[in-house]
UniProtKB/TrEMBL annotation:
Its EC number is 2.5.1.17. It comes from the Bacteria. It comes from Aliisedimentitalea scapharcae. Keywords: ATP-binding, Cobalamin biosynthesis, Nucleotide-binding, Transferase. GO terms for molecular function: corrinoid adenosyltransferase activity. Pfam families: Cob_adeno_trans. Belongs to the Cob(I)alamin adenosyltransferase family. This is Corrinoid adenosyltransferase. Residues 7-174 form the Cobalamin adenosyltransferase-like domain. The keyword Transferase applies. InterPro entries: CblAdoTrfase-like, CblAdoTrfase-like_sf, PduO-typ. The lineage of its organism: Bacteria, Pseudomonadati, Pseudomonadota, Alphaproteobacteria, Rhodobacterales.
Length: 190
């Protein structure tokens, strides 16, 4: 259980922070950038939830919880020591990726195929979901960059990849099942 009775600790005043295993690293390290961006994404999902209702809001609540799982996963290096850790680290699992895929398939079933790229916008919720999509893509880029120098859980990267797709399809649903999508017109303002 987490207990936070004092919010500031002053331990990071010199520009470093503790990872999940206690190792101290620079706050600008690749690992901190990756899990920090997943936290940023979680905040944007919270903003999107202000306009979401029904199953969309329920799904976004699940995603917010998953994003905390993702942050816990990314903040914990040394996957090879997971089995011997005093407290088993929380890692993303394939079932979380598969749930996103199933939800994407359900949402996409009623959408007409795209014949053009779409611009972020349409409804307020769709615009917010597109912001979430782009931040998810940035988090994915940072996670894959991290994976070039340190070992990370492959399910974390897969989750971020599917999550950005989920936001894209959910944005189309939020735009009256795609009928209010704003289509890109190549060269329209030349």
């Amino acid at each position: 259980m987490v207990v936070l009775n004092k919010i500031y600790t002053r331990t990071g005043d010199k520009g470093d922070t503790a990872l999940g295993n206690g190792t101290r690293v620079a706050k600008h390290s690749a690992r901190v950038s990756a899990y920090g961006t997943s936290d940023e994404l979680n905040a944007f999902v919270g903003v999107a939830r202000l306009d979401a209702t029904g199953e969309t809001d329920t799904a976004l609540a699940r995603i917010q919880n998953d994003l905390f799982d993702l942050g816990a996963d990314l903040c914990r290096p040394d996957m090879e020591q997971d089995a011997t850790a005093e407290y088993p680290p929380l890692r993303m699992v394939t079932a979380q990726v598969e749930r996103l895929e199933a939800e994407i398939d359900i949402m996409n079933a009623d959408l007409k195929p795209l014949r053009s790229f779409i611009l972020p916008g349409g409804s307020r919720l769709a615009a917010q979901l597109h912001v979430c999509r782009t931040v998810a893509r940035r988090a994915e880029r940072l996670a894959t960059e991290l994976s070039t120098v340190e070992q990370i859980n492959p399910a974390a990267v897969k989750y971020l990849n599917r999550l950005s797709d989920w936001f894209f399809v959910a944005a189309r649903v939020a735009n009256d099942n795609g009928t209010a999508d704003v289509l890109w017109v190549p060269g329209a303002n030349r």
